[in-house]
Structures are given as structure tokens and as C-alpha cells.
């Protein structure tokens, strides 16, 4: 039974058609009379032992094909595979005659589109009453069977097969001759609409009017002596008004063997959009007798022939319903997508039993219509699915003009959506002459009218697109899907992967701004792009409905969060569920958000830069759209601008390495426990107790791998935004890119979630040197210079990548240009680790390069602290310099002795005081020191345990906490936690940089201090008197005097500006400099014996 | 009996093997995981493709290519297969094979932005310089968010193929226009081209640009002086060197004592002596 249903389903898809009233062109594909006497040279093949070509036999007394008895494929002859994909139908005409066929003997014409694996019967010739009846021994000429075809018929095999059961001493023979296969190409549009719900095929008892909507069969029109009306309704009919109906019928599926004579009258329901049937008595008859609606003037009489059970063949088709269908379509209220219904009546007590939707949706009645489309006209106030679109399928380059509303598309073809090829589209479009090199782009246009465009602020759009799509409204792009970013042209292919499976039939949805809509006629232009030249299919259908986003419709789905904070500006980013305007109101006190920045272009991903802010000032903010505030101000939604660059003040940074395990749900709870420990730490009411400046976090530094496993948008949502939302809305976040973040980005095009989510400075917006890329950058905060490097792409398999060269050059310039007191660098791959990665392992991408090539630059430039992640542990170095080799090369002796540690206590803990948390087991042996004259030394921290603590192998113990077996390290722990950086005044004109490793338990398991003296700058003096020559006064503002030793004679004086340009030249010892701009100058004094250079300041 | 010599060799081999097994940490785990999946689904072409890319990231290009070939044999048809194949061959320095793969990709999709870059890089290695310029230009004309290095690379192709410094500088200027006038790598490259094309005055303008841009000017004054010396413009070099000395003098002590500044001071003295002896 299962097999039968499958075959029936296929038959529904490839229904027979009658060719009448339609416009066709025809091509004879093959004409074979077998007079060659052999199969060779024909398209026909010998099926086996009961098949041959023989001379002097019926039906024409010459050569013919002979099939005997029934030995399966052995009693068949079949064609080679034929490409019928370019035809809308194909007919097979043949002569035949049988000999010895009796009883239930029959033969078939069948086809296969899967290489002969399965065959589908399209001609069923029977000696008895079932199927197409014939008489044994009679000559039949020019039998004709027609099959509707499409792109799926690119490899079609026909075969004749005898199914005659031979008895003892009996020979059953079928002769076939003059087989002509003809292909037809119709300009008609063909639709097949099946009953699609239980209540769309129904029965009504003529006496009493009782309704039955759920029967498993329709008895036409008598059910065991009960005469009944049968109603069938078809919905979503894609026939636009003005169409001319050329062919139409209803195809039933037989549910019984029925042979008795019967006359049925078919009447259309004369309604614009007849509703589904109900259980109200007389609900079918009332639709044609005037009680609800009337019947159509046109009626059709049907005298069905005998039929066998389980067939969907010509016998189960009604006669042409053209007159009825045309009458309904011509109604004034008919429109595209409406429903039409038919009522079948008969006074006879005989019946024909057919299947219903309730029996099996695949076997439900189907309305087949072929019609000539009218020229497309604008639809009103919307574009419904299945509309009549103009299209251009000639592979041409249309540039951009075709998207404009004024473009003349009258020469384009038109057809009903779904348009495409290779699938079950309503309108087949072309793909060019070469199936292996199909045109990349097909163009579509549709006009629609809008009465008042001001009534709408958005457009609900839906589409079926296979593979990629770009949509334009009146010439402006409003939607792009599955296409690359950037410029698109007629040779652009869709993005990977190719659309397939259910995605080919799934409506994708979007809501876009209605800002481009106009009152009057609008045009939607769509370009559909193939994914590759040999792809089998494209599809396109589209809906557009204007809409109004209600007040407050936008809700925040991500953020807000803060980026690139400076002393005068900050970027606020967030996402909303619907496209809407971006408006940020802000002010220095709640209830008084008097300033506004906005971008009124509706979007879902918002980015607003607030500028002109006062340094070190708290601003509250809210989010608004044109309908009002949808994320109101609150005490925890604020921005604190950075202090003026260079200010020495208290600063706290929260540092998270490899935190994003919630992104893929691994290590549940670990990431949040680390977070909560920090929240408790800074909370003045929390368990940590009193700390300096509670509730202050000036920045969050992310060391990469922010969302596992691949840094996708959804992983970032779960592992980043959903976890840190509380702090991200009031604290600026900075990040470097980890290897897991790198899995979902394209470095070549700087695209992907990481680039989309973050907005980092590229042009030195926050201080430092412009890098031109968000991959590496620097920023200044207070008196700290932060350097952010990208350690993923520094290796090149033997050749140094250009990226690495550029990043190093940038770093050299950047670090040598800063005037900040502290320098902190961070990047993902740690120079030193024995955690889940091993810095002695040459196969570790990034680690060696960063250590060998970047550390010398950083250390020469005075870096104080280097932070990394990658290993899921906390490992903290001693106070070191110059250790760029493997761990075995580390020498703990001080640098003055040729070693790698710096200062008297560089090999020790770096702790300034005794810590109660450590029970006295670790010595407090003093901070690491940096003075004006001794600037060497930095601490390296691998801090990648903010989401999981795994994989470390410090000494074989697990877990292991304490002095590290990696010589450069002072402390290592395979424990969850985050790192805290705090810079505070040391009370002696310097500052302390305090670093703490805060466990998820709330304890501080490691800490140390770097003390730096001389933070308060001393003013240098200019000694311009070297005994031989004196320049005064300095600074000068009017007259500058030069005194020269008596033993020398002045020859010449030149004054140069900062760019080396001569701005004054004289032989006088007194120079008027009042015309010079304020600034630094050099005075070159030439005497007969010497040359002197003096720098002066002009005020 | 195992001699000490062989024992040592065994230890070395074991140590090396451990390195290889643990190389790239997470990548190794991912490759192993993918291998397990392949064992369960040996005919799944996509799995081979995915493992191939992991091998590529692991810098095991031979294995990557082997997996890509297997994926293709099993029916994997996505065009990205050709991109990945070309990418692996390219990094593996098998440029002719890389070109074959990238060309195949271009047959399917010649507009895709990044294939044009890779194709250009391959052509460059094969010394087909004009074509390399052509494809790289196509890439740069269409990429939405270019990196500074992209402009540098195209300009270097132009120099290699045509020695056309004005055109190369034009590309760099285009980058500066798009990414910001202060982007360091582009300005440095522009200066390099100006130097190579002997546009001395424009080189000086570039040095002056940096001098004006940065608060700390000592390195730039020194570099300018060094360049002027090389160009035999000694009076100007002397002045610039004086400014370098002044800039160093004006640094606060903590900067003056940095290694980089100590080295700079040495360089200044050396250059001054050199100038005095010229």
C-alpha cells in the first residue's frame, strides 16, 4: 500500500494533460517504425528474453516491436534516457495490436526519471473493462498519451511492458509500431491546486442536508442508496484576474472498482472567494441554489468511464471545466489567491468513489488549470504570494538601472510565482543553453500601488529564495539574503552553502523600513542569484504587506553596551527585535537627559557615538525611537567618561580570559561563578568587605575566546551578552581576538561576528597610534597606555605574514610615542604557559612568535604588564626581562648578572604586605620597583580561566596551586577566576599597580604590586649657557640676545622651526622674534671657530 | 640490551612525539573528534572537508589536501572546497596546484571577494605579476572592510610588476583615504615608495607629518636626520639631529632611561659623529 501511495503521489505531480486551446510549439523528438529490423541505431533497447523486433507482423504487416507474456522487464522495450526538461509536455503516439490477450491481460506505457529504478504507469491498456479497454486482435493506430514535463525530466526513459499472464500452451503477444515521441512547449501557465484541508471536500445528504466533512471517500453521488451532493473547494489559486482559461479539470483518485454507468453534473460556486465547507445543513447545495450563493451559469456534464481502484489516470479526470473556471475568474471580485468551489450532483444511484483529504492528503482531489496570463498590472496595497511578475532570464548584465521604478520592463516575460526552474515552480524561467553553466542572475519586477504611504512605517516582506536574493524598493536596496557583502553584479554567485532541502520551500521573513514607499505606484525589483553554475534549481516567490510598528514595538535583544570610551566620547551599541530608529538621550542626572544623539534610519543593530562629553563625568542614558522611550533611564544605565589623558588617579580594570563557556553550554555555571565573585568584590555591601573605591569598574578587558566554541552571534549572545549584561551597559569593554573568536570571522574581509559586535578605534580615536584596523589598536585611559595585539595571524608557515610585519612596525611606533606613565599590553596567546597550552611546544601557533618577536619591542618600550589567555589557568610570572627562549633558558639571576629577573626582589613574590588569606605560607617580600632610572621589568600573566579551568600540567598534580614548575612563573593555579588591575597613589609621588587573582570562590589567591616612582613630572630646565655662548632670555617673546665668547667672531645666526625650516637669518646678536609663533625653535650660531645649536622657546 | 645511546634517542623521539601530539592544543582535540565522527560516517564528504580545514589550521597541509580530495571524491560540491584547497596549496608553497584550485573556484564564482585576493597572491608567486595586480585590484575594489595590509600588498604587486611608484603611491593614498590619514603602516609604506622613487622633498614632508602628529618626536627627528644624511643634505640633517637631542632632553626621566631611548641616544651620537666627518 505504501508503494501504491508513493506512485500516486508522483502521478499527482506529473499529471496528464489534455492539449486544447493552448498555445504550443512542438518538436518531434523521435519517430521509430522499427524497419531497420534491429535495436541498434534506434533509441529503443531490448528489455530481455521476451522482447524483439520482428518482420511481417501486426499492426502494419511489417517490422514491429514484439513483447510476449509477462517476464517483468524481460517483456519490455525501453528508450535511452531523453532530456525532456525543456518541454512543458510530451506525447507518445503509437500503433498496437495484441494476440492471445484474454481475461486480465494488459500492457503499459511507463516512464522513469530516476534511471530506471522505478517506473510510473501513464498508459494502462486492459483487455477487460478496467483502464483503457481494447479488443484482442484489433488494430489500433495513433494511440496518444501525453505527459506534462518540467526540469525534473532531464533524464527520462519510456518503456512498453507486457503484463499478459500466459496460461498453458498460451502465447500472449503485443506488437507496437510507429512510435512517435513529440515534445511541446506551452506558453501557458499551469497550476495544480489540491484540496488542502479536511473541510474542503465534503458530502451533503440530498434529503435532510446533513453534512459530512471528514469522510475518507467521496461517493459521486450516491452512498449506498443515499443520494448526495459532493463539494470540492480549492484555495490559494494563483490565477490573476483577466486570465484566459485554456485547460482545466479536476483530477480524482479512485477508491474502488466502479463500472456502472453514471452521469454527473458539475456546477461552479459563483463566488469571488468561496469559504471552506461547514457542518451547517445544506452547506453545499446552498452555494448553488441561491441560499448562500448561486451556481455558475456554466455547467459541465461528466459521464465517467469504468475505473479500477487506486488509479489517478484519465478515467478519474473530469471533462474540461473551462467555462466554469473562466466564469469565476471573470467575476469582478475575483483576485489572485482566492478560492473556488465545485458541486457535483447526479440523480443516479450508481457511484464513483474517490479519495479525500482525510483519507490521504496526497490523494485529495486536484484542480488542474492551464491559462494565458494577462499583462501584469499593479496589485493594490500589497504584493500577494503567487503574483504575476515580470522577469528577465537571458543572463544579461542589467547594471543597476533595472531596479528603478521608472525602468521600462515591458519587453520582459511575465509569469506567476513561484518562478524558477528545477523545482515545482508555477512558471519556469530559463537558465541559458548550458545546464552546467547556468546564468548566475535572474531579474524580477513587480508594481504595486499605495494609496497613502504616510499610513505605513514598515513593510513586512517574505520570500522564497533559492539561492541568494537582493530586493530593491523603488531603486533602493531593502533586503539582502544569502549573498556576499559589497557590490553585486550579474555574475555574482550566492553565498555558501547552497539552499537545499526544506530551505527551498521555506518562507523567510523580514521587516524593513517603509521610508522608500511612495503614494502611487511602487516597484519591487528582485535579483535571484544561483549559488554555482551547475546548480539544478532556482526559486522565487514574494509577499509584501505594509504595516505599522506600534508604539513600543521595539524591544532590546542585546545590550546596550559601551565601546571605545574616551574622555570626551563613547559608542553606545545595542540590538532590537525590529528595525527602528536609534536615539540615545543622555544627561548628568536622572530625570534630566537633556542631550540627544540619533540616527533615524530604522535598523536592528544600533550604534550611536556620544561626543563632546566632559572628562570623568557620569552620564545617564536611555534608548528611544520615534514612538517613545523603549528602554528607560535607570541608575545602572550610565557612562562615566575617562579622565583626561595623563591624569594620575585610581583606576580599576576587570580582566577576563577565555570566559565564554556559556556560549556552547559547556562547564555550566563556571563562567557565572567567576562573574559573581567579581560583582561581590566591587560591591561595597558584598562579602569582600571594604575595598578602595567600591562600585567602580573603569573598564572590562577581554583577552579573547569570549564565546565558545566558534564565536558565533548566538554563542556571543549566550556566552557574553547574557552573562555580562549588567556591567556592559555601564562599563566600556575592550577585547582582543582569540582563536575561537577567529573561527567565525573572515580575516580577509574583516567580517564576521567579532567585527560586527565590537567597535574599536582604528584611527587613534582613543589615543595612541592609528592602526587602520580593529585587529590591533591602542588606547589611553588616565595615565595608562593600553596596547591590544592580535596574536592569531602572526605565523605564516615559514614566511612572515605581511600582517605580522605591519603589526610589529605599528607596535614599535606606538609604544615609542606614548607619554603615559603605565603601559599594559594584552593579546590572546601567552608567551609563557604550562597550562592547557605549552609555551615550549613549537607547534603552538602564535606563542613563539609573540614571545620572540613582540616581547623585545614591548620591553624596550617600557611595558609594565602583559596579559594573555588561551591556557585555561592562571599563571603569573616574576618581574622579568629578556626571556624569549624556551623555559630551560630562563636564568633567575638579575639582569645585571646576565639573568632574566629585574631588581632585588624580581625573583620573589612582588607582595608589599602580609596577606591574611595566605596563612603566612607565602612571604611578603616587597613590590616590584620601577624608578626613573631603572625602568626595566614586566610581569606576564596568563589569565584564561574565567570560563573553565582545565588542561594544566604544572607538575602532575591536579589541581595544582602554588609556585610554578615553569621557571619564569612565580605562581600558577588551575583554578577558575578573573584578574583585577588597580592603580592607586603610593603616597610618595608615585603609584602602585596592584594585581589580584580573584577566585570564583571570592578569595584572592595571588596578588602583587608594581611600584613606580616619579609619576608626578618634574620640569626640566634649559641650560643655554655652556660657557662659550649664551642665549637669553628663554623663553623669549620679543628680543632674543646672543652672547659669544670674546675669542670668537659671529658669522651667522639661523633660527629653525620644529620642521627644520629657517624662519630667521641674521648676523645681529639681537634678534626680534616677536613675529614667530609660539613653540620650540633651534638657533644655529656659526662663529669663525665653531658651530653651536641652542633650543629656545618662543612664547 | 638497550645502550645509553639508544635510550637517549628513544627519549628524544618520545619527547618530540609528545610535542607533535599536543601541538596546537585545542586543534588537535578537534581533529581527533572529527576523526571519530568520520569513523562513524566514513562516506560523509562534509566531515572530510571540515577535518581538512582543521588540518590546514594545524599547518598539516598534506593531510588537509588529502582530506579535501577525499571530500570531493565522496561528492562534496561546495565551491568553498576549491578555495580551501587553493589556500592550503598556497601556504604549502605548491603554487601551480594552488592556481588550479583557485581557477576552478573562479570558474564557479568569479565575483567572490576573497578568492580574487588569494588568486592574485598565487599568481604573484608564479611571477604572473600583471594578472596578480588585476585580480588584487578586483578584490580591493569590492571588499567592504579592507585591512591596511591589503593596500600595501597590492602596491607591492604593482612595484614588482611595473615599477610604477606613482601608481603604487596612488593605491596607498586610496587606503589612507578609506581607513584614515594617520594609519601608520600605510604612511610608512608611502614613505618607502617616496624614498625609492627619489622624491626627497616629499619624503621630508612625510617625516614632518609624523613630527607634527606625535607628542614624542625624538625618533622621528632622528629618522629624518638619518635620511637627510643619506641624501647628503647635511645642514638639514644637523638641524633635525639637534631637534632629536632636544626632544630626548625634554623627556621625563622615566622615558629617558628606557632601553629604547638609551639606544636612540647612542644612535644620535653616532650619526652626529658621522655627519661631522662627512
Q: How would you sum up this structure in a few lines?
A:
The complex is a heterodimer of chains A (about 1100) and B (about 280). Chain A is mostly beta strands. Chain B is an all-alpha fold.
Describe the fold and architecture:
The complex is a heterodimer of chains A (1099) and B (278). By secondary structure, chain A is mainly β. Chain A folds into six domains: 24-186, Galactose-binding domain-like (Jelly Rolls, Sandwich); 190-372; 379-547, Sandwich (Jelly Rolls), CATH 2.60.120; 556-640, Immunoglobulin-like, CATH 2.60.40; 651-795 and 802-837 and 846-1012, Purple Acid Phosphatase, chain A, domain 2; 1029-1098, Sandwich (Immunoglobulin-like), CATH 2.60.40.10. Chain A is built from eight helices and 64 strands. The termini of chain A are far apart. Mean pLDDT of chain A is 88; it is low at 1-22 and 1017-1025. With 278 residues, chain B is mainly alpha-helical. Chain B has helices at 4-22, 26-40, 45-57, 61-73, 80-91, 95-108, 113-125, 129-142, 148-162, 165-179, 184-196, 200-213, 218-230, 234-250, 253-256, 259-277. Chain B is elongated and about 75 Å long. At the A-B interface, helix 7 and strand 63 of A face helix 1, helix 7, helix 9, helix 11 and helix 12 of B.
What is the overall silhouette of chain B?
elongated
CATH class of the largest domain in chain A: Alpha Beta
Rg of chain A computed from alpha carbons, rounded to a whole number of angstroms: 43 Å
> Which pair of chains has the greatest number of interface residues, and how are they split between the two chains?
A-B, 84 and 76 residues
Here the CATH topology of the largest domain in chain A equals Purple Acid Phosphatase, chain A, domain 2
Termini separation of chain A: 102 Å
**Sheet with the most strands of chain A?**
8 strands, mixed
Low-confidence stretches of chain A: 1-22, 1017-1025
- The CATH H-level superfamily of the largest domain in chain A is Metallo-dependent phosphatases
Name the helicity range of chain B. over 70%
Q: What share of residues of chain A is helical?
A: under 10%
User: How many helix segments of chain A?
Assistant: 8
Uncertain runs of chain B are 1-25
The neighbouring-strand order within the major sheet of chain A is: 46-47-48-49-52-50-54-53
Number of continuous helical runs of chain B: 16
DSSP strand tally of chain B: 0
Question: Largest beta sheet of chain B, briefly?
Answer: none
> Please, what is the average pLDDT of chain A?
88
Task: Report the end-to-end length of chain B measured between terminal Cα atoms.
Answer: 72 Å
Question: What average pLDDT do the residues of chain B reach?
Answer: 87
